[in-house]
Predict the structure.
Amino acid sequence: MTFVSALLAPGRSPEIPDSAAIYDFLIGDWDAEVIDHEEDGSTLRNRAEIHFAWVLEGRAIQDLWISAPRRYGTTLRRYDRLTGEWRVTWINPVNGAENRLVARKVGDDLVQEGRREDGSLIRWSFREITPDSFHWIGEESHDEGKTWRCGTEFLARRRRAWDREALWVATNGDGFEHVRLSLNPIVIEGVVVRRGLRATYRIECDAAWRTRAVSIDDRLVPLDGCIDVDILASPFTNTLAINRLALEPGQSEEIRVAFIDPANATARPVEQRYTRLDANRYRYEGLASGFTAELPVDEDGLLIEYPGYFRRAW
């Protein structure tokens, strides 16, 4: 039996009642944006990954928080049957921190409170909790709780089991696009790279492929009422209109899309036309620019190539 298999548990122990199951929502893998608030008023932003699992025969939850260069630490959350409390111990070997806290529910939030070795108060809160996201806030007080200073925030999203991945490379060698696609719900995360630019994006659609939200490098982009988007230098975003329109061979439709420049996360409305030529080919037309392209696609509406510009590597 390996150490990991002996440590991990398949779920919560029956010794922990449902009424005390305040941490169940965390189990799984998460990605996060980290915002560190410095004492001089400046902020530092970074990315993080966080992993939570049941351990010790389901009597505790252990996690791992990774955000270079400051954090590579673990928390053990143990349910105390005698007091009915969750006792929390955080250890970060990078900076030598070892904190002990007690957790409680406060309305819809989950608040963990304790003291550092120097006696100052600390408060770590999970807020805005949903099945797929949470906002974690770390605060400290040096006047016995009269005032609090926010030191760190984590904006976390659950890591998904992606249904499809695809990579397009520019035919002139200047850049690529990589996307991951979840179909239930429809969520796309991608990165566009070309000379002088690297931008990440996230697109959320409803079940009919109508775009509901777009963010570029974690900045929300206003869509001005458009239900389709087209990101500059992105062969993927043609898929959004193709799948939403669901045209029959020979059919054509004009649409108004939010055309997004990933360099500055701005959008402007443009008119486009899509025509389905046959089962796996579409004609795309930019009505203002006069640009036209024939786009071969696979069974999921993903472009096989953008003739003269991109080809799909996988």
